[in-house]
Specification:
Radius of gyration: 21 Å
CATH topology of the largest domain: Spore Coat Polysaccharide Biosynthesis Protein SpsA, Chain A
Number of helices: 12
Shape: globular
Strand content: 5-15%
Helix content: 40-55%
CATH superfamily of the largest domain: Spore Coat Polysaccharide Biosynthesis Protein SpsA, Chain A
Number of domains: 2
Structural class: alpha/beta
Largest sheet: 7 strands, mixed
CATH class of the largest domain: Alpha Beta
Oligomer: single chain
Distance between the termini: 55 Å
CATH architecture of the largest domain: Alpha-Beta Complex
Order of helices and strands: HEHEHEHEEHEHEHHEEHHHH
Length: about 350
């Protein structure tokens, strides 16, 4: 009887948190009103050894539906050792609103240093950032402009990872979906903790007010998350952009090694989150893992079927109901195994993040 009561209370606790998170997500979905005014934007892209990605990046940038006179594109070559610099130089010869800068002397390590140089050389009051291996949709800048014009200090959008052919690529895409859902929900719950640098924008004045990247040097990464941390500390207004016409796509990692390296970099940054951010993430992931692994206690009591069943039902509901809104498409036969493996890899990635150093490239 005692085990039954404990299980029921635990399931109730899970459901209360899960429903709150979904309500946070729905609140953000309902906030997607935009202004039609076209702000002047400085689009920054830091590139290091990206010669393979530059052609597709430019192909996407050329399709952007935004007045040329209202934006500039600043590409910062972070001392590439391949043909990135030469390739960009050739591609921007006929483009009046593009410029290429060499990151010869950086104030900060890694990508932050390259972006800082771009910001210092930007001429507009609103900064938009993406990565060199990304492909934004055509109305991305229009939607970003609308959110910034609505008064937000910092804005981040949806940046789906495409689902590849092998299992690791599908796992990376599913993880991207689950993480995007949670980061958007967290903003709705007034606990923003993470953003995607693949679709990130802010007012230059707000960036300067929080000290720019000077307070984000805890780790070489964190040009997005730790900047958002400082914005939260300064009680700034943070918005999300959830519109298929503003998605910024990127490819999945090619191998397990690439995936683990990417996750190590992200998790190294999470150590430096604010206490309330870590508390929110810790509770949510802990309760999910406990629910999943309660299956090993089913031989002790059949009551332990309940947490596993409730969790998987909720996970399936979220995946089926929310995935299209966030640029993903998984069928039911993929969702269940991916969800289980995703939870297991939360533990693997955490352990992997405890050792070794990370690099920007």
């Amino acid at each position: 009887m005692e085990i039954q009561i404990i299980v029921y209370l635990f399931v109730l606790f899970f459901l209360l948190i899960a429903i709150s998170i979904d309500k946070g997500y729905l609140f953000q979905i309902k906030q997607q009103s935009l202004s039609l005014k076209k702000l002047d934007l400085s689009l920054l892209i830091a590139a290091k050894n990206e010669e393979e990605n530059i052609p597709l990046l430019f192909e996407s940038l050329e399709k952007i539906n935004y007045p040329v006179e209202n934006y500039e594109v600043i590409l910062v070559d972070d001392n590439s050792t391949d043909k990135t610099n030469e390739l960009i130089s050739e591609l921007i010869k006929t483009k009046q609103n593009y410029k290429l800068i060499k990151a010869d002397s950086k104030r900060f390590e890694g990508k932050k240093g390259a972006l800082q140089i771009g910001i210092e050389n930007s001429k507009y009051k609103f900064i938009v950032i993406t990565d060199a291996d990304c492909r934004p949709e055509s109305n991305w800048l229009t939607e970003i402009s609308g959110k910034l014009n609505a008064g937000f200090d910092f804005v981040f959008g949806v940046a789906p990872i495409k689902s590849g052919k092998n299992f690791i690529q599908k796992l990376a895409a599913f993880e991207n979906f689950r993480n995007t859902y949670l980061t958007i929900s967290a903003v709705g719950l007034n606990i923003p903790y993470s953003a995607s640098a693949r679709s990130f924008a802010f007012r230059k004045s707000s960036f300067e007010r929080i000290g720019g990247y000077s307070k984000t040097t805890d780790t070489i990464s964190g040009d997005d998350d730790l900047l958002l941390r400082e914005a939260v500390k300064n009680k700034m207004l943070i918005g999300t952009l959830i519109d298929p016409e503003a998605f910024v796509y990127s490819d999945p990692p090619n191998s397990l090694a690439d995936y683990l390296k990417q996750k190590k970099r992200h998790l190294k940054t999470s150590v430096h989150y604010l206490f309330k951010q870590k508390l929110f993430l810790g509770f949510w992931h802990f309760i999910n893992i406990i629910c999943l692994f309660s299956m090993v206690l089913i031989p002790v009591s059949i009551n332990f079927v309940l947490p596993v069943a409730v969790k998987l039902i909720f996970d399936i509901y979220v995946a089926v109901k929310r995935q299209n809104e966030l640029g993903h498409r998984f069928n039911l036969l993929q969702i269940i195994p991916l969800q289980i493996v995703f939870e297991i890899f939360l533990i693997i990635n955490f352990i992997n993040s405890l050792s070794g150093k990370v690099e920007w490239k």
